[in-house]
């Protein structure tokens, strides 16, 4: 960083992962209701790959600094702020990296209401893996599915970062988990994370789940998309819930939808939350209890962001790709 300048990955048009190079941009100026955060780490996400390709939703436009989540240390605050310089904070969503500039940068201007304060001695690589993954997983199972101890939960797309985190959190809540993957090589990693029933998602998927759960599952978390949603709802028992959170398969909508496509007695809900859905107390609780964070690979510096996106896009890794500055 030089005076009033900083490094960032600023994209002016769609590009390949290898074309993501740091450039010098203006430092953001502090304004009312915001704090300036020195970025220490951030996770790399599927939605950022989509944005980089120019295939994102209408709220995204170039030029843009990507990055929907991050952790860091507060650098500057306003006189009336409830935060203070040096404080550790996390944030995610809130339009970052899409409608406004995001975390692929050295410094980030963040609304105070979107900050989650915490104190931790964990490595920044671990802290950087958590915000979006934890917020989405926690919100899905707590608000979307209202999981309770003793439930049997199906996580479709279970080897994704959100799927892995949801499975880990659910197990800590006393829930048994069936989690799926389309890559047989990932089954061992899922078992090592403590998932009760890692299941290969192939042509025999339904029969495998039925063997584990002959009376069907209590709850289902859908992360693959519309292409598998109705199949999953068919595996949910009467009175159970299915929550649509993600579309790893790329299909978010369905033409010619009819409510009668939902099985009788099964409840369909969704989750698409924000930072406010992850209480600071719960974030701190997870930091204190967590033994294993699903991290695929750690990268050093903005110069390795392109490699991180390329590795994520390859689908060969299990866990989060995290960049540490």
UniProtKB/TrEMBL annotation:
Keyword flag ATP-binding: no
Q: Which domain of life is it from?
A: Bacteria
Looking at the record, the residues that make up the Enoyl reductase (ER) domain are: 16-323
UniProtKB keywords: NADP, Oxidoreductase
Identify the InterPro entries for this entry. ADH-like_C, ADH-like_N, ER, GroES-like_sf, NAD(P)-bd_dom_sf
Oxidoreductase as UniProt keyword: yes
Tell me the protein's name: Zinc-binding dehydrogenase
